[in-house]
Specification:
heterodimer, A: about 230 residues, mainly alpha, MetI-like fold, B: about 280 residues, D-Maltodextrin-Binding Protein, domain 2, 12 helices
């Protein structure tokens, strides 16, 4: 029990002082996972609206593939991205391995199917009459897409939440393509693993508290926005 | 409009990320190393000095020695700090690494619970201790990750004429030394550790040193650079700078003093410039 109490007490001290580069690591986590979700949102809207609004052969297969992608094991994604980006790999000359960008790429591959799946489902659930009405009113394709997305904004928020949650708490891919380098690619999850393997439980607990708080804060903001939208 | 603002903010963050990544670069090397140099904190002391002396920032990939050497063999690293002498020599013979030099040593120890159910405490021979553990079917946690420590352990089993893999009392953690010691402690099991990692973590472990001092348990670290003539993308200058730094007086002095204040004894003994035979290596 000593370990738990001492660990928690020490963790709160670290939260106060920001030792172990706590805040720097937190910002990096936010930045890398936020970037991955932003890119995923662009991909998700493009692919999701394609799937939702068009009838084409193989559409069911495409849906199945997206749904499979929603459960992609991060460690498999990490291995594939690492093999591509290693110096000895096909994209080795880009020198991307062990950089934040490599982590953004891996997390995008993890988050994009989640965002796409949620987006496609959201758009499919809109009344088909909405689109024909918009066409009748003379909306261009782009205007129509914007208006339809606007209608689906709440489920899209859910897509962002789910994508961010998946990206920020992922570890297998981050450690493989990022290398867990201090000051460069060390994020909350990989820092927890390192501190535990060093037997430093207090910083590990502090980092875990921040990670939980981060996910809570993001969801709180998004949920608040949702509720305000619903009221208005 | 809040929603639109969030989208714009997240989008901007994405663009910034790409811009930041594009501006990256500068003088860097990739250092593939064993987990013990990172888990003890030794590299945290050495690398800032290396950066100041040479201008190179070392990107540390801390993995088992097996994987570190595999990275070198593919040209995916510039320098290696490892403790698996016979595997290192294979790479030297193959021409994947060059400029291999002795850096430091400490020793491996056999650790276990204080009540020592297998009764190995104080044995002078590591092989005898391993045989006793196997006879008693006492739980043993192996790294199982092809690391330097794992290779040494397998060598000891081989010398004892045993192959414990697959038996109920023998488990493979597949993790670094720090994590493996945690598992060993939680299980009240036996394991083999480098002394540095054990000392650095002793306060969190319910494990004691039971067998030590057998010459077979010597743990020797070498530094080497990956051969730039063999791999196009290897940073030859950076790798050479790291090897030179590790055997420099300054780095050797840091190694000599590392851990004295915190653990009351040094974790590593510097060896640069010594002949291999002085350490009693085969």
């Amino acid at each position: 029990m000593d370990l738990i109490w001492d660990g928690i007490r020490e963790a709160f001290r670290i939260l106060g002082t920001g030792d172990y580069s706590l805040w720097e690591i937190t910002l990096r986590s936010l930045f890398i996972s936020g970037s991955a979700v932003a890119i995923s949102l662009v991909i998700g809207i493009a692919v999701g609206s394609l799937l939702a609004f068009n009838e084409f052969p193989g559409r069911n297969l495409a849906f199945t593939l997206v749904n499979t992608g929603m459960g992609l094991p991060p460690v498999v994604v990490g291995l594939l991205v690492a093999i591509m980006l290693w110096r000895s790999g096909p994209l080795g000359q880009l020198n991307l391995i062990y950089t934040p960008l490599a982590m953004i790429i891996a997390q995008t591959i993890i988050a994009a199917p989640i965002v796409t799946g949620f987006t496609a489902a959201a758009l499919r659930s809109l009344s088909p009459r909405l689109r024909s009405q918009l066409y009748a009113l003379g909306a261009s394709r782009l205007q129509m897409l914007w208006l339809v997305l606007w209608e689906a904004k709440l489920p899209l928020l859910a897509a962002v939440m789910a994508g961010f949650g998946g990206a920020v708490s992922e570890i297998g891919a981050s450690i493989m393509v990022g290398g867990n380098l201090a000051g460069e690619t060390r994020v909350l999850t990989t820092a927890v693993v390192l501190e535990v393997s060093r037997g430093e439980f207090a910083p590990a607990i502090a980092l875990s508290i921040v990670l939980l708080a981060l996910i809570f804060a993001v969801n709180l903001i998004l949920t608040t926005v949702q509720q305000q939208e619903q009221r208005s | 409009m809040t929603w639109r603002r969030i989208v714009i903010a997240v989008g901007l963050a994405g663009l910034l990320a790409l811009a930041a990544a594009a501006c990256g670069g500068g003088k860097e090397i990739i250092l593939a190393t064993t987990t013990s140099t990172q888990d003890t904190g030794l590299l945290d002391e050495l690398l800032p000095k290396f950066k100041r002396e040479s201008g190179y920032k070392a990107k540390v990939i801390a993995v088992g020695s097996g994987e570190a050497l595999a990275m070198a063999d593919r040209g995916d690293a510039d320098a290696v700090l490892a403790h698996a002498p016979s595997s290192e020599e294979e790479l030297v013979d193959k021409g994947s690494v060059v400029n291999r030099q002795l850096v430091m040593h400490n020793d491996f120890i056999i650790v276990g619970p204080a009540n020592d159910p297998a009764g190995i405490k104080g044995m002078k021979s590591a092989v005898e201790a391993m045989t006793t553990i196997a006879d008693q079917k006492a739980p043993f946690v192996s790294r199982g990750d092809d690391s330097g420590t794992n290779k040494l352990e397998l060598k000891l089993w081989k010398k004892a004429g045993l192959s414990p893999q697959g038996q109920g009392w023998y488990e493979e953690s597949g993790q670094g030394m720090g994590a493996t010691l945690q598992i060993t402690s939680q299980r009240g099991a036996y394991s083999i550790s480098d002394r540095g990692t054990y000392l650095a973590q002793r306060s969190n472990l319910e494990l004691e040193v039971l067998v030590e001092g057998d010459p077979l348990l010597l743990n020797v670290y070498h530094v080497m650079q990956v051969n730039p003539e063999r791999f196009d993308r290897v940073n030859g200058e950076g790798g050479k700078a790291f090897v030179e730094f590790m055997v420099s007086d300054e780095a050797q002095e840091i190694i000599r003093n590392f851990g004295v204040e915190k653990f009351g004894q040094p974790l590593f003994i510097p060896d640069a410039g010594k002949a291999e035979s002085e350490l009693g290596l085969e």
